[in-house]
Amino acid sequence: MAKSTISDDPVREQDKFMLRLPAGLRERIKEAATRNGRSMNAEIVSTLEVAYPPKTIDIENLTDFLSSLASEAPHEERLAYIDQVNEAMAKMKEPWTVHVDPLGEVTFLPYATQKTTDDPHKG
Fold first, then answer.
1. What is the pTM of this model?
2. Which residues of 3-19 are buried (b: 16+ CB within 10 A; e: fewer)?
3. Which of 80, 6, 101 is nearest to 44 (CA)?
Protein backbone atom coordinates (compact mmCIF):
# COMPACT_ATOMS: atom_id res chain seq x y z
CA MET A 1 0.00 0.00 0.00
CA ALA A 2 1.40 3.42 -0.98
CA LYS A 3 2.42 5.89 1.72
CA SER A 4 1.52 9.53 1.44
CA THR A 5 4.23 12.17 1.23
CA ILE A 6 2.29 14.40 3.66
CA SER A 7 1.17 11.86 6.27
CA ASP A 8 2.27 8.56 7.80
CA ASP A 9 -1.16 7.10 6.99
CA PRO A 10 -1.50 4.86 3.94
CA VAL A 11 -3.07 6.83 1.09
CA ARG A 12 -6.12 4.56 1.04
CA GLU A 13 -6.90 5.43 4.69
CA GLN A 14 -6.79 9.20 4.26
CA ASP A 15 -9.85 11.38 3.77
CA LYS A 16 -10.51 12.35 0.18
CA PHE A 17 -12.40 15.48 -0.80
CA MET A 18 -13.52 16.57 -4.27
CA LEU A 19 -13.13 20.32 -4.76
CA ARG A 20 -14.17 22.85 -7.40
CA LEU A 21 -11.71 25.71 -7.79
CA PRO A 22 -12.44 29.19 -9.14
CA ALA A 23 -10.85 30.05 -12.48
CA GLY A 24 -7.11 30.66 -12.16
CA LEU A 25 -6.71 29.21 -8.65
CA ARG A 26 -5.43 25.83 -9.86
CA GLU A 27 -2.61 27.53 -11.75
CA ARG A 28 -1.67 29.66 -8.71
CA ILE A 29 -1.57 26.53 -6.54
CA LYS A 30 0.58 24.78 -9.14
CA GLU A 31 3.03 27.71 -9.22
CA ALA A 32 3.26 27.80 -5.40
CA ALA A 33 3.77 24.02 -5.27
CA THR A 34 6.59 24.23 -7.83
CA ARG A 35 8.19 27.13 -5.95
CA ASN A 36 8.02 25.15 -2.66
CA GLY A 37 9.12 21.84 -4.19
CA ARG A 38 5.85 20.08 -3.36
CA SER A 39 3.01 18.36 -5.16
CA MET A 40 -0.17 20.38 -5.56
CA ASN A 41 -1.87 18.16 -3.00
CA ALA A 42 0.93 18.72 -0.47
CA GLU A 43 0.77 22.48 -1.14
CA ILE A 44 -2.98 22.57 -0.51
CA VAL A 45 -2.69 20.45 2.65
CA SER A 46 0.17 22.61 3.95
CA THR A 47 -1.88 25.77 3.40
CA LEU A 48 -4.93 24.24 5.09
CA GLU A 49 -2.81 23.09 8.08
CA VAL A 50 -1.75 26.71 8.64
CA ALA A 51 -5.31 28.02 8.30
CA TYR A 52 -6.86 25.25 10.42
CA PRO A 53 -4.33 24.09 13.02
CA PRO A 54 -5.26 21.18 15.29
CA LYS A 55 -6.50 22.19 18.72
CA THR A 56 -4.01 21.58 21.48
CA ILE A 57 -3.91 21.61 25.25
CA ASP A 58 -0.80 22.66 27.17
CA ILE A 59 -0.93 19.79 29.65
CA GLU A 60 1.82 21.20 31.90
CA ASN A 61 0.05 24.54 32.36
CA LEU A 62 -3.30 22.84 32.87
CA THR A 63 -1.75 20.46 35.42
CA ASP A 64 -0.24 23.36 37.37
CA PHE A 65 -3.55 25.22 37.30
CA LEU A 66 -5.61 22.22 38.43
CA SER A 67 -3.05 21.35 41.12
CA SER A 68 -3.27 24.86 42.57
CA LEU A 69 -7.08 24.65 42.66
CA ALA A 70 -7.18 21.09 43.95
CA SER A 71 -4.67 21.62 46.76
CA GLU A 72 -6.90 24.26 48.38
CA ALA A 73 -10.09 22.21 48.51
CA PRO A 74 -11.09 19.29 50.77
CA HIS A 75 -10.52 15.89 49.14
CA GLU A 76 -14.20 15.23 48.27
CA GLU A 77 -14.45 18.64 46.58
CA ARG A 78 -11.24 17.92 44.63
CA LEU A 79 -12.71 14.66 43.36
CA ALA A 80 -15.94 16.37 42.32
CA TYR A 81 -14.00 19.13 40.56
CA ILE A 82 -11.79 16.63 38.71
CA ASP A 83 -14.91 14.69 37.64
CA GLN A 84 -16.25 17.93 36.14
CA VAL A 85 -12.96 18.50 34.31
CA ASN A 86 -13.03 14.94 32.94
CA GLU A 87 -16.62 15.33 31.79
CA ALA A 88 -15.78 18.61 30.03
CA MET A 89 -12.74 17.06 28.33
CA ALA A 90 -14.84 14.08 27.22
CA LYS A 91 -17.39 16.46 25.68
CA MET A 92 -14.53 18.17 23.81
CA LYS A 93 -13.37 14.70 22.72
CA GLU A 94 -9.95 15.28 24.32
CA PRO A 95 -7.95 12.06 24.87
CA TRP A 96 -6.99 12.86 28.46
CA THR A 97 -8.17 11.75 31.86
CA VAL A 98 -7.32 13.68 35.02
CA HIS A 99 -6.72 12.07 38.42
CA VAL A 100 -6.01 13.77 41.73
CA ASP A 101 -4.55 12.07 44.78
CA PRO A 102 -5.49 12.87 48.42
CA LEU A 103 -2.64 15.41 48.66
CA GLY A 104 -3.87 17.34 45.62
CA GLU A 105 -1.32 15.99 43.13
CA VAL A 106 -2.88 16.14 39.67
CA THR A 107 -1.96 13.56 37.05
CA PHE A 108 -2.98 13.40 33.40
CA LEU A 109 -3.26 10.08 31.65
CA PRO A 110 -2.92 10.32 27.86
CA TYR A 111 -6.13 8.42 27.20
CA ALA A 112 -9.72 8.60 28.26
CA THR A 113 -10.93 6.14 30.89
CA GLN A 114 -14.40 5.19 31.93
CA LYS A 115 -15.60 5.69 35.48
CA THR A 116 -15.57 2.54 37.56
CA THR A 117 -16.82 1.87 41.07
CA ASP A 118 -13.44 0.43 42.06
CA ASP A 119 -11.61 3.65 41.16
CA PRO A 120 -8.81 4.06 43.75
CA HIS A 121 -9.29 7.83 43.60
CA LYS A 122 -12.87 7.60 44.81
CA GLY A 123 -12.88 8.23 48.49
1. 0.42
2. ebebeeeeeeeeeeeee
3. 6
